[in-house]
Amino acid sequence: MSLEAHLETTRVAYDVHRVRKDFPILSRKVQGKPLVYLDNAATSQKPASVLKAIREYYESYNANIHRGVHALSIQATEAYESVRRRIQEFVGAREAREVVFVRGTTEGINLVAQTFARRRMREGDEILISGLEHHSNIVPWQILCEQSGAKLRVIPLNDAGELMLDEYEALLTQRTRIVALGHVSNALGTINPVKQMIAAAHRKDIPVLIDGAQAVPHLRVDIQDLDAEFYVFSGHKMFGPTGIGCVVGKAALLEEMPPYQGGGDMIKSVSFEKTVYNDIPYKFEAGTPNIAGVMGLGAAVEYLTAVDHLALEAYEHELLEYATQAVSAIDGVRIIGTAAKKTGVLSFIVNDVHPHDVGTILDREGIAVRTGHHCAQPVMQRFGVPATIRASLALYNTSGEIDALVRGLHKVKEVFG
After folding, report:
1. Element at 371 (helix H, strand E)
2. What is the pLDDT of residue 13?
3. HSE on the CB side for 44, CA within 13 Å?
4. In whole angstroms, what is the distance from residue 369 CA to residue 115 CA?
5. What angle do the packed helices 399-416 and 355-364 form, to 10 degrees?
6. Backbone angles phi, psi at 380, to 5 degrees
7. In a domain, 41, yes or no
């Protein structure tokens, strides 16, 4: 069966054209052309249900939470906490109190670094990350190394953009205090074998943090099955609003960790002599939170929960295969990152054309891609390129949009000879 026939078979189970109707922005034009949005690894578009949830909060029950006895505050508090329970179910956390709301993956990693990991670090200890990481899973650990005298160790990549697991096992030593890994690479789309890697770390009693920002929109995540100590992700990558995300941590560890920030709502009592901190997760949620963002995140989780994940994963796999074949067939185009297991990302260069120039010409055709180092400069250095063009897919993208990308790349070649 041809690739196109495979894709058509998948469409029977997954109706992408119906899905697209849920996203208002996809009907707009850019530069007079239909929008082709292929920048989903940077941020995803939002379905109407998410926009409605945010608007309804502000229009119908806008009030601060946990602090009022009036009707609006009670309604807002109940809605806010119901989202926490919804997320618990969505990612398979053991308890709702293991879900901590933060601004996003970046803040979540910093929280774990400065509360859980910092107390464990001594000079000469080691923090193990991978060569695939986003800057947000590099810089917080570098800061911690500067603070503690610990050393940062890095799991190397092979030429396909896959982690070298034998090297990983060798890097797990009695000095390793924490492993921090991305579930899916934002720059290359590589799906790391995190369950296997978590188990290897646990055999040496080493805790693990997983950056799930790029995984949650595409894969079914079961945190209990993975068994990581911490799993972090962002709302805006998974069709929710910006400025909201979650740290899901094992309750026993969260209880031991000191607060990340001080202020209102993270306390039980305050006097000038002593402050008694609140229970988890509230101990980590100082001040007035992004209540509207939580409402939007809850709607995004509801939206993703309603999707047939087996059909979605099959559809996205076929679409990525289609895109890979179509783009790599263009003379002078080279794919960066050819892992056997990938999701949602096609990163490539066009010979003798700077990625920013490619992105500019594609934009004139209404095509949104990301160009640059994708906050993953060590990945670019590993492959000897300063930047790539990244087309990243989501549940609303189509083979027709891939065809538009291919036409746009042919136009790039025409312009630059």
Report:
1. strand 370-372
2. 79
3. 28
4. 36
5. 120
6. -60, -40
7. no
Q: Are 165 and 196 in contact (CB under 8 A)?
A: yes
pTM for the structure as a whole: 0.95
Determine the Cα–Cα distance for residues 24 and 33; give it in Å rounded to an integer.
16
C-alpha–C-alpha distance, residues 215 and 227, integer Å: 16
Q: What is the CATH number of the domain that holds 155?
A: 3.40.640.10
Residue among 188, 294, 198 nearest 244 (CA): 294
Selecting among 267, 375, 385, 406, the annotated active-site residue is 375
Rounded Cα–Cα distance for residues 19 and 81 (Å):
28
- What does the DSSP 8-state code read for residue 295? H
Q: How many CB atoms lie within 10 A of CB 145?
A: 18
d(CA 353, CA 370): 15
Active site residue 375: yes
Read off the DSSP letter of residue 213.
T
pLDDT tens across 176-223, in order? 999 999 999 999 999 999 999 999 999 999 999 999 999 999 999 999
Rounded to 5 degrees, φ, ψ at 385 are -130, 145
Q: How many CB atoms lie within 10 A of CB 17?
A: 10
171 and 294 housed in the same domain: yes
Q: How far apart are CA 365 and CA 197, in angstroms?
A: 42
Residue 395 phi/psi, 5-degree rounding, is: -70, -10
Joined tokens for residue 416: 């630059």
Q: Which H helix or E strand runs over 349? A: strand 345-350
**Residues spanned by the domain of 56:** 51-305
Tens-digit pLDDT profile for residues 283-328: 999 999 999 999 999 999 999 999 999 999 999 999 999 999 999 9
For residue 200, give Cα distances in angstroms to 141, 170, 289.
21, 11, 37
Which residue among 305, 327, 350 closes a domain? 305
The answer to whether residues 243 and 288 touch, using CB atoms and an 8 Å cutoff, is no
d(CA 396, CA 352): 32
CATH code: domain of residue 395: 3.90.1150.10
